[in-house]
Amino acid sequence: MSSPQSPSRDSRRGNESDDDYYVPRTPRRTPMACIFCRGRKLKCDGRTTCANCQKRNLACTYVPVSAQP
Ligand SMILES: [Zn+2]
Ligand SMILES: [Zn+2]
């Protein structure tokens, strides 16, 4: 009455894609206008070179919020 070694049922792990799913979060920046748009009160799209500056071939410059008084 000797039973052969029964294969131990080990729960298979590793096929779960429920691990820590890393979602690259982009830091939320406050929408701010570049100097040109701010001065003219235009709607700035916030790009590196916004549409207004691009249209006028201007250098799009942003002033960091921390630099404000
Ligand atoms: Zn702009
Ligand atoms: Zn601009």
UniProtKB/TrEMBL annotation:
PROSITE patterns: ZN2_CY6_FUNGAL_1, ZN2_CY6_FUNGAL_2. It holds the Pfam family Zn_clus. Residues 1-26 are annotated as: Disordered. InterPro entries: Zn2-C6_fun-type_DNA-bd_sf, Zn2Cys6_DnaBD. Residues 33-62 form the Zn(2)-C6 fungal-type domain. It comes from the Eukaryota. This is Zn(2)-C6 fungal-type domain-containing protein. It comes from Somion occarium.
